Request: fold
Amino acid sequence: MKFLPIILAASTLAAATDIAVAQQQPAGAPGATAAPTEEVIITGTRRTDRTVTDSASPIDVITSAELRAQPAANMLDQVKNVVPSFFVGQNTISDASSLVRAPSLRGLPGDEILVMLNGKRFNRSALVQVYNGGDTGLSFGSQGSDLSTIPAIAIKSLEVLRDGATAQYGSDAIAGVLNYGLREDTGFDVQARYGRYQDHSDGKSYLIAANGGFKLGGAGFVNLSAEYDDDLQTSRGVTRPVAVAFAQENPALASQLPNYPLPAQIWGSSPTHGYKALLNSAFDVTDASKIYLFANFAHFNTDESFNFRSSLLGTRPFTDTTGMVHDIGGRSFFQHPYYLTQCPSGNATCPAGGYVQDTNTFFLSSIYPAGFTPRFVGKNDQEYGTMGYKGKTASGLGYDLSASLSDDTLDLSMKHSISPSFGSASQTSFEFGKLIQKETDVNLDLTYNIDAGLASPLTLSGGGEFRRESFTATAGDFQSYGAGPYASPNPLYLQTSPGVYAATGTFTDAESPAASGYGGTSPTYAGTHTQNSRGIYVGLEGDVVKQLSMGVAGRYEHYSSFGNATVGKFNAIWHASDAIALRATVGSGFHAPSPGQNNTQILTTNFINGVSIQTGTFPVTSAVAQFYGARPLKPERSTNFGAGIVFNPSSAFTATIDWYQINVRDRIFVSQNFFVTAADIAALPELASVGVGGAVQYFNNAFNTSTKGVDLVGTYRTDFAHGKLSLTLAYNYNKSDVTKFDPAVISNAQIIDVSRLAPNHRATFSANWASGNFAVSLRENYYGSWVDAVDYATVVSGGQTLAGQEFGAKYTTDLAASYTFMDRYTLTVGASNLFNTYPDKIAATATNPIYTLTNGLADGQVNPRSGGPFGINGGFWFASVRVQF
Reply:
């Protein structure tokens, strides 16, 4: 790892220094409550005297205690539980999107959220979200940061800027900013947690985390955090009807069904284990300057179930809950023999390319007698580091020069599968190649206070940024992407006499190219693609009069891929009285298409009306995409409006109400499916990698959206029952509407999901009480109704897609209690989703019948595959022990 020498040097320096180990009470200790409103914020402003109630833009400060109270190892789930406008699906079977889940803030995609560590841009994941389903409906086509690589134990606080900030921070800050402040305290902090789900013996979760902080004499610090977690598989579906039929007809082979005795394919959370670490350090060079270094490392392994491939020969009748009978059978490549004897060379009666219809055959059931369920494996490695020098000159000029390097790699493979078009020569495991995202960021930020005779000095800010990001795809195994000899139908011949053959008039069956379930990167699309950008910005903010603060910012950036972008922002806050303030903001923003969005090539197996389809996503510059009308990508452009009221009558009570509207033009999306014909392959042979009947899609600037919403946040702190009580209510209403679209790119079902996939209404009410060594936290969560139209749409005559299934509103309850003994040890027990609430079950429709044999869909689904807003795993009980010294 490229940053390891730096870490070792910092650790050696710490060991050689007179280390002060005076205990500091870290954030998140028992009895800690929500952040007080007087805490100074650093996100969304260059001033150093702004608080939550003074900020002209709405901002929330989430404490370490709130994040670590969530019984989840994944930062995505921790943030989802405490920020109402933040949404992320569970993602059960969604290809690589189950490995790197894409979040949404205010209904906008993951790459319109800027993530920062200590105020510095965090890198993107290597994965571009191209899975076409409700799991990724709000972030389809995005390439954002992977929050799961950040260990919660390393966080001091999270500032959530609920406002566009592209003019201040550059591309991507359209929906808002998540800025993680890292711990700087001393002492040691170790936590171990065990948990399991209420109704099932699966899904056991183990976590151990540690943090250590050291003083470097009196001139600096080193703070190290590490976290290891092992989350086991959950299963919340039923088996397929064809698997039941196979077991009944072949009892001796029943135990060879995949996952036996569990369902033949798993709808639930994939087993994941790995570690993540974070270093934060700084050292004073002078009284007014310091060097700093922070770095993040992570490694994860995820093993995901794919769809079951049944070996059942022929079809069987199955009755659904309406009494209708459906014939369902095994996969096509189990149904027919592979003829292996090729025509002898030079024989006029049996031309080259033909096969002899004889007993020299191969049946796939010889490898998988009971069928197979591919297991999709992802190994994710993250390295990120920032080093900088900051301070202030004698004249008052503040400066911060920094450089960041990052490398995010996703290594994809599959086991227990086949490449059908290669027949008996097929592999059963495949390497798909690596996806690699590398970024270099160099920033210079300057601030200077100008005394202009106003109520406060004016803070003048400015600076520049250079960014270089590259996206690399390495080639996979040939069989992972290639077309074998059985990819096209070949004529069959029967030997009538020695050396003489006659055409039978039949052909070998055409089988899908590439590995069943996914496809590797071909050498044609392997390689590295780079994008450079340069930007400058300027800002001015201050108190014009005592009651009125204003700020303005502008930014210009030039990209090597598409050209220039210029954006600006204006905000203001007016304190009408000591208790009431009015604030407003208006600005423009953009999201630059990434090299990954411009150059991704992925081959996956999707299911359309129950039929498996090889679907290829191709770069917009490729011959394949251009064959179907692709054009170069443009940046997304946005306009943000906001207005709000801050009510702060006392130090004990604060309430804010903020209205917002975000208009985004030229949203980047993935096109509809263009189905490949034999004539298409004849015109462009490269399409053979997808095959006849397969589909092609590509990135496009597909549509415009308008997002409107309201945030309400209220906090009240008081003494109660000999302890401290903190009450918080947070509510978000959010709805996005597609205002303009290309019908060749986005479907009616996808338009519905943009508006309704996440609940339009979301609220949390939390109560935290602490007295002495005892602490209790209670949170009630409300999730409004939501719709999944892509996965559960109803199609009527004429191809019109009606609104998909609406899943009803739900409440969940979280409860935890802690006790600290011997000053150092804290025992916590609790439950997330205490009353074991599940989303509504999938409703039976003509296109999604429920079968009486299993009480599930044909593929075993019972609950929505995306998990909805709070998942399909049910109640989770946990216990943890924390030691501080």
Summary: The longest strand covers residues 695-720. The two ends are 30 Å apart (CA to CA).
